[in-house]
Specification:
Elements lengths: L5 H34 L11 E3 L8 E4 L14 E4 L8 E3 L1 H5 L1
Antiparallel strand pairs: 1-4, 2-3
C-alpha cells in the first residue's frame, strides 16, 4: 500500500471543503435572505409577495413523470405531465406568515 503525499491529502481536504460548501449553499442563502427581509421589515417567508411556491412542483403546477431524479432521455416521447396533487395545479400557496395577521 502506498502512502499519501501531503499534496494528495491537501487535495482531498479542499475537495471535501468544496463539496460541503456546495451542499450547504442553499441553506446559507435562505438564511441570509430571511435576515435581509427581516431587516427591511418584510415577510420572512415570501418577501411581501403573499404567495409561497409549492415545494413539490417548484411552482410549475405540474409534475413530469420520468426516471429517477427526472434523468433519462432529453425529450422522451412517453413523458407524461400530471397536475400537482399538493397545490392542485396552482403552483403556490398563500403565505402562512402573512395570512396570520
Amino acid at each position: 500500500m502506498q502512502s499519501l503525499t501531503s499534496n494528495e491529502v491537501a487535495g482531498f481536504a479542499v475537495g471535501a471543503l468544496l463539496l460541503g460548501a456546495t451542499i450547504a449553499a442553499p441553506k446559507v442563502d435562505a438564511f441570509i435572505a430571511a435576515a435581509q427581509r427581516r431587516s427591511l421589515g418584510m415577510c420572512r417567508k415570501c418577501g411581501d409577495v403573499k404567495n409561497v411556491a409549492c415545494g413539490r412542483c417548484k411552482g410549475t403546477g405540474s409534475i413530469k413523470s420520468g426516471g429517477i431524479f427526472g434523468f433519462g432521455e432529453p425529450e422522451p416521447s412517453n413523458a407524461r405531465s400530471a397536475t400537482c396533487d399538493n397545490c392542485q395545479g396552482k403552483g403556490c400557496f398563500p403565505c402562512p406568515e402573512c395570512s396570520k395577521s
